[in-house]
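JOB MANIFEST
job_type = single_chain_structure
chain_count = 1
residues = 145
[input]
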Amino acid sequence: MYLEYSEAPIQEKIQAIKQASHNLAFMWDKLKPILIDASKSQEEKDMINAVDSYILQYHSFDKNSFKFRYPIDKDYNPILKDEERIDIVNLKERMTELEHFFSGADGKLDYLQECKYEQEKYLQEIEAEMKAEYEAEMRANIQGY
């Protein structure tokens, strides 16, 4: 979403992706301002804050995205400690909520981007019409002398 909807130059986007690697908090920090800017209601902003909490909790638990992908680290040590347990049912529910949020946010940003494009296109058409009318009037005035 950051790549598609950010107005940052492409080189900045590429650098952000390289720098982020599997760091959810880093990428969320890039995307969050775009979502806040597109949010008009307090309800939407509250939802972004809830998502912020989910992402930061997930990131603090699994900073390098290893815990949910591998049972051991690069030195063959167990990733999860004996006292760490994951409530899979709760995790699935939260992930479903996040999927719904991001799907909706993507749809909204896509809609807003399309509206902006249509508005710019309409303004260009009006500008072209005004220019053509002005030029036609100027030609008529010149021919009238």
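[summary]
The chain has one domain: 2-144.
The chain is about 75% helix and 0% strand.
exit_status = 0
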